[in-house]
Amino acid sequence: MANTNQPSSYLSRKAEFTLATVGGIIVANAYYIHPIISEVADDFSVSASTIGLVPAFNQIALALGIFLLLPLGDRYSNRRLSILFAAGQTISLGIMVLANSFIVFLVGSTILGFFTIGPYLLPTYASKRVSPDRLGSVTATLTVGTIFGILIARTGAGVIAQYFEWQLIYIIAACLMIGTTISLPFIMEGRRETSVPEDRPNYFRLVGSLFPLLRQHPQVFVSGIIQAFNFGIFLSVWLGLALHLTSPAMGYGVDIVGYLAAFAVVAIFATPRLGKWADKIGPEKARLRLALVQMAGVALLYPLGQNLWLLMIPVVVMNTVGPGIDVTGRMTSLSLAPEIRTRLMTGYIVLMFVGAGFASWVGTASYEWAGWAGSSAMAFALSAGLVGLSWHQARAALPHSVN
Q1: What are the residue boundaries of the structural domains of the chain, listed by start?
Q2: Which residue stretches of 45-134 are H helix?
Q3: Is the dihedral of CA 302, 388, 228, 362 positive or negative?
Q4: Residue 31 — pLDDT band, cuts 50, 70, 90?
Q5: Does the keyword Membrane apply (predicted)?
Q6: Check whether domain 15-183+203-397 has CATH 1.20.1250.20, yes or no
């Protein structure tokens, strides 16, 4: 039996996949709204731009929650924090289930976003328990769990809403979160303390230290901006697609939106390979290449947008490379000193979700203003920004690979 006085050095493959599953269940809660956004808007009698506030506030609240809560991972046990945040999500889902007005539903979704911290504690938790040469691979495994959760959320929500009341989706989500909250104490290993509490920085110093850390590690700051563009593309396209496909011009049901979302399954197989590839050639070089491929896919959204079958082409392209861009971004912070990884990841994710929240609202507003052409133009503008910053980062990293 291993010496219990020594911290665990490595996660088993079973533990990696279990953590990936937990992350998928938790993160799925933010994505049930995507295929059913038109149904929820109709039920509450609100416009496309107004219903866009639900995912927008959810993402912005998540950014705020990450900023205020995620740095605690460098002070307190990731296990304890994950349990508390999961309980907060469970309560907020109960509010959404019982909501009898748009405002109450919006409040529940916003609180839900604030507590969706678990999936962003898990990479740091895992990074301290794997060898450096497997960081990209393990990060990719956890990312696959997130992708799978999003896939199930969007596909399942569309099908359920087509044949039952959309509220059933959130009842199921609440039940899953109750089970997850109960299971987490048995899944995650408690951190063995290496210093007395007095030796640790207090909460305000932890949060305040985020800004100097980002100044010291500008590559993490820029990676966060890049991921804000990347995730913004994802959200604006899928919210626009949900409105576009269920519009009178296209005439499809919300189940079709869910079925189209199922093409994200390609990422489950591609992302681990992309993570290993990034380990070999470097995250900056890999990200630039993936960004260029994604831009090509985004450029096809508008010309192919009136045919469901042809839309599968850009959807598959984007779902294949988008998560890989995120993996390369996370690698820039998870490869740094263990004692600052959680805070650097905090900065990365805050930037990501601030951009995502903005894109969620602008994406639905663009559709209300100019239909599918507006949604496609918005996505292409974000993609151009992503490519430009990725090129800048790849160029900045080049001298480090010379000699």
Answers
A1: 15-183+203-397
A2: 48-51, 53-69, 78-98, 102-114, 118-127
A3: negative
A4: confident
A5: yes
A6: yes
